[in-house]
Protein 1
Amino acid sequence: ACQNISQKDFQLADFQSEKLPPLEAVVDVNNLESVFSAGGYYGTSYNNGTLYNDNSSWVQTTSISGAYVKDSRIQNTVTLFNDFVKEAKKNGFKIKADLILNHVSEEHEWFQAFLKGDISKKDYFIVKDEMPEFTKYVDEKIGTIVEYKEKSGKISKRRLIFPEITDNHYRKVTLNGKDYYFYHTFYPFQLDVNWENLEVLYYWLDTINYWTNIGIDIFRFDAIPYLSKEEGTNAENLPKTHAIIKLISNYIQMTAPRTVIQAEACQYPNDILPYFGKERKFKTTINNEEKVIK
């Protein structure tokens, strides 16, 4: 069974609880991320959510963020979603949702406030006053690379995830005649947040509180390896990123112990292992040689 939900009209009739029992196999829910003001996808066509009713009895909903508090459309959506969750639980489902911690949409209240003149909101993002000098090249193993020469003299070597969309990792924004350069790991409308700002942490903890209270059983942490953007690094799998994840994991264990987390960590095996919560070793054979990967 397949049902589409209109992004334009924000019609979520398919989330009404009376529609739950007939769910079989897969229900494709399109454009829900725009309705839920997803961290990076608000108002775009880059969104999909899939609900499953299989032997594991869990439901993947959509990407979510904390913007529900500011948008009446989100409020109406959440009312329907609450009803859906209640009926899903009655029918033995567990609810799984993306949580995007790396970036927010250009539609987010922080960025919109900056555009309206609240300069303090730039502290919620990774922002430079001048565009760093950079060189770009293609590495045969890892793709397009951009190397930035920082003011400190350090070289930040970063993968460009979507070279067909953007030339580098910075979006230029001019406000009152002054240029600002906002960092983005992915698309220019997905602005990376500044995890050095404690208000960012408090915001996401509040967001987690909200959705666990509604009934989310599993958070899939989207784009999790990129949280820390220390100069002179590739901004992937850094110690500060793991520290943030551990902090959030401990917080969830204390406040919502029935909720678990999964990490979307598209990395090499030795870089993925720490996301399981501790260092592990395993043996494998590469080119007929046995190797131990930590």
Protein 2
Amino acid sequence: TNKYIINNRFSFYKDLQLGDGGFGCVYIGKDLKYDKHIAIKCESIKPNKRTLLEHEYKIMKNLKKTNHFPIPIWYGQDLNYKFLIMKKYGKDLEFIRKYCGGAFTDKTLVMLGIEILNKLKILHENNIIHRDIKPENFLLDKSTNNIQLIDFGLSKCYIDKNTKQHIIMKEGVGRSGTLRYMSTNSHERLTLSRRDDLISLSYMLIYLEKGKLPWQGIKSSKNHYQEVYDIKIKTYLNGELLSNINKVIYHLITYSIILKFDEKPDYDCLIKIFKDYCYDNNISIDYQWDWLK
């Protein structure tokens, strides 16, 4: 059979795969102790190499005290693999966008904006930047009728452990994130900071509002990253990216793009702008999402 048991407590089937990331596979499994469904991330062990999974576990453990992010149930080694086990959440925002006809209504967009800005505020207050904000990394949490941010494999601490100051900007670093949503700073191979999570969030909200971004659908080539970068710059400057978008998303992107590298975003002010929009447009923030209809 395809059944595996880890740590005498968790079972999964090799063919019940939830997805795969840059590190390995994610399976749906069962916590036999509590008879609950779980998500199991696994990665093969490479000698003397610090794994992405270990890195993600440490970040999740650090964030546990906030009560706002997924909590690791178990991390360890078994069957020549490293495993990270956490609660299983529902579908991701990309799946739900398609289910909702390709785009979300104003109400759902603005409520998402409020929720995610609040999550990023808490994440950043804990000195962590996510560095891979995209619809696939937000999952439905049915228990709270809300969304949950996942996948901290690329996350980093932006406070220098020794100086206790903001990290310094370096050039020529590796790109981080997903091509469609990464900021132009990532394209330029600059160190990422808090502003880049907000820029990626802006791109993501425009995508969820319009169903597409101007740089989608370019044929893959040697210069793929450069071509996407050029379109990101051009469509921002010539207004194509910003035309017919909700004014709060317009505000978010224009604000985020001019933030300085080590500048702290004014999350509360941004959230207030989103909430005021709801008030002005008789939208009640009641968590009646599009996907509940």
